[in-house]
Amino acid sequence: MQNARAVSRLAGDRPVIAVVKNNAYGLGLETAAPVLAALPEVSVLAVVRADEALGLRKAGVRKPILLMGPATEDELLELVTRDVVQSPYRDVAPTLLARVAQRTGRLVRVHLYVDTGMHRMGMPVDHALEWAGSLARARGVRIDGAFTELTEDADFDRQQATRLRQLQTAAKERGLTIPLLHAASSDAVMHQTTETFLDAVRPGLSLYGGYVSERAMQLGGLRPAYRLKARVIRVDHLAAGDGVSYHKRYVAERPVWTATLAVGHVDGYPTGAVKGGEVFAGGRLYPVIGTVSASHTVISLGDNQSLRVGDEVTLVGPDHPAIHPNEVAKRAGWSEYNMFMHLSPKLSKRVV
User: Fold this and answer.
1) Smallest Cα–Cα separation from 34: which of 62, 3, 61?
2) Which residues of the chain, if any, have pLDDT below 70?
3) What is the tens place of the pLDDT at every residue in 119-163?
4) Angle ∠(286,293,32) on CA atoms, nearest 5
5) How many CB atoms sit inside 10 A of residue 74's CB?
6) Residues in a beta bridge with 108
7) Which of these, 27, 26, 29, lies nearest to 46 by C-alpha position?
């Protein structure tokens, strides 16, 4: 996938820890994750929920998996058996993980989850050194790395990366090795310097072809990794004065053909698409009109019936700049992340 290559190149050819949380950013864990896992640039896949980690193994992923979130003892027993790397962030972790190692007879591998200033998750960095020592002494536990989360404030993020490096150095002085450090998200890879890249980068959105900002789009190199498609299920001819959808939010000023698509906001297409959004079919763009309702979207065909029932229309994808997810989000007044995260898990998906 060209996106992983582009990200790795921007990060100085560092290995990529691919974040596939939240159903692989909406693209489907079982669909997208095996594709990412097959790429040489990707060294690890990361998730935030225990069921996602187990789902990756069930989908056939054999590369290392990092769980960047909590797990109960019962979940840990299965996760460790399936060789999922854990991310402890609490004082209780050494005792719990040692007990899991004893019960499973397996080595528990961990990446220390360190809070270097975001104050959302992780062990506060001021307490992390003693805590890391406790983990290192726990029977059956091995520290393979440490990570933090960046705030997307470039100056402060450099400080955060420095704090993580300082933890690694202080640990080494005590005879404790922390082999791998990572922090940089898609935003950091696109906007920041190598100081935050550390030993590996940990992007999400950019791997799926979404840009984190207008500035990032100027760098180029990414391609949307999905197409949102729907079929035409009805074609209509409006007379002047006829209205479309709820409250007649669109009223025809002259005779015009319209088509109804079998897709709506419940599928992840933004309601704001009526504010200038377009769809792509047969080499042409068609404006979205009326209302994007739960299950339907109406488009204007203009003077001619250029589409028929059953024709396929692309609402989001790489085929035209107007339907790039960032552009759709911009016109709809949505976050670019919503263009991915809000895709319905019930959508039919296939790799092409």
Assistant:
1) 61
2) none
3) 999 999 999 999 999 999 999 999 999 999 999 999 999 999 999
4) 75
5) 10
6) 141
7) 29
246 is written with which tokens? 């709820």
- How high is the pLDDT of residue 349? 92
What is d(CA 316, CA 256) in angstroms, rounded to the nearest whole number?
24
DSSP at 322: G
Render 231-282 in DSSP notation, one character per residue.
EEEEEEEEPTT-EETGGG-EE-SS-EEEEEES--GGGT--GGGGGT-EEEET
The residue count of the chain comes to 352
Give Rg (Cα) of the chain: 24
Sheet holding 180-182, edge to edge: 123-124, 108-115, 141-147, 180-182
pTM of the model: 0.95
User: pLDDT by residue (tens digit) across 37-78?
Assistant: 999 999 999 999 999 999 999 999 999 999 999 999 999 999
